[in-house]
Amino acid sequence: MDASVIVSGLVCIALVFALVIGLAIHSRQRERQRREMLEVWAVRNHWQYVPTPPTEWWRRLPGRNQRGVALALSGVIGGRPVSVAEYSYTTTSTTSGPDGTTSTSSQTHHFVIWVVRVRGSWPAIAVHRRGAVSRFGRSLFGDRATALGYEPFDSAFRISAERPELARSVFGQDLVAEQLAGWLPEWSLFGDELMVVENGRLTEPDGIPARFGPLLRVADLIDAPR
């Protein structure tokens, strides 16, 4: 083989290697700058920035990654303690080629979790908008014990609860109406922590307080006297 071809090949490999390293360094720098931005925002707004906070939130999140909560910002809005955090978990998959060789790839899933404290302490309860599978299951097997007995709501949402008999204690008339109107997100409640989980990462800290609006409304409706 011609020496120039060998040299050219080695140069190409070196360039690719350098590009990969450069991209990795750039990615780490951007991530560091992003976290610094969040920390500066927290200080300026009298919030607390905590890297890898010691919480049990992971138990309620996809993937149940015990070390998945990377950071949290906590403050007070309207007299209620609130927190917003980032969480991730990684899945790995293996594929086989026609020649019998296998390759493994991984994907990291990123989430933002929003937490608002309510009064009292509740067993686990959550509300989810029904998908096609849930609607089909309901048509076959009927409603669960958590159904509210209000067809427009029961056909659009399903409630999961550790203690089904408490569902109607949580879902008052206004909460049902606003959930059905689409003004409120899907949420879960456990203990005194009301939570919403979204895909993505925190990028614009100035918008954090306003993003709590719908979840704060849920908290107010749950705490409202019946």
Summarize the structure.
This protein is α+β, with helices and mostly antiparallel strands.
Give short descriptive properties of this protein.
226 residues; alpha+beta; 2 domains
General description of the model:
- The chain is built from seven helices and six strands, in the order αββββααβααβαα.
- With 226 residues, it is an alpha+beta fold.
- It folds into two domains: 44 residues; 175 residues, no CATH class.
Mean pLDDT: 87
User: End-to-end distance, in Å?
Assistant: 85 Å
Low-confidence stretches: 22-26
Q: Give the C-alpha Rg.
A: 24 Å
Biggest sheet character: 6 strands, antiparallel
What is the strand and helix layout of this fold?
Blueprint: H1 3-44, E1 48-51, E2 69-77, E3 80-96, E4 102-129, H2 132-141, H3 151-156, E5 157-161, H4 167-170, H5 173-180, E6 187-199, H6 208-211, H7 213-223
Antiparallel strand pairs: 1-2, 2-3, 3-4, 4-5, 4-6
